Amino acid sequence: MAKRTRLERGSLNPDDILRGAFELTDEVTVDNLSMPMLARHLGIGVTSIYWYFRKKDDLLTAMADHVLRESVRSTPSVEPSDWRGTLQNHARTVRRMFLGNPILCDLILIRPSLSANVAKLGARHNENVIAGLVESGFTLADAVGIYSSIQLHVHGMIVLQRLQDKNRMSDSPSDAYYEILPVSPETTPLLAAANENGFRGGEPNDHNFEYGLTNILDHAAQLLATTPAQKAAR
Fold first, then answer.
1. Domain extents for the chain?
2. Cβ–Cβ contacts within 10 Å for residue 52, how many?
3. Which of 47, 176, 28, 50 is nearest to 106 (CA)?
4. CATH number 1.10.10.60 given to 1-54
């Protein structure tokens, strides 16, 4: 762990603590972060941290607030003129962003804790996506259903990948569920043939992500093409 320059007396502020917390968490994970460890990393007494953050949960909430603000700013909007292309880009961007920053996944998806104001920001972000879909011609029910399906697909694959990565880094690593299933041409010929062609069921990889995303978008396109009479009969 790289040694930081000790902060001068009286120069500490919450932003310094947050920066240090992100630096340290990148090395030790959210689960293993502790206030005494952070104090040593910053070169200060632990009571200096408690002046701004009374407990670890308060610090993690501030960290979650920060990363959610950044992720909302970096996530593309859904445009009514090209709902499918922009929603697809939205889903891909969220997945890429979370997989590239494990802290983001830990703080937002696995251990969600947000201040009231930032939680409202997240709600407005979801509202804007739904509004874009409604403006594209979807009913409110379909817009909510489509975006919920996208979120569950994206977030579920992100969390599964993150949990598998954390498991592999643990003191007692083990294989993922799909990796321990006995697959052979003799007992499971179809699965064996699929594996030979690079198709692995249950793995949160790019192929399975794109397959699921395409199917959700195809279904959404079918819903949009449904006539008013067909919609009324559903």
1. 1-54, 76-226
2. 16
3. 28
4. yes
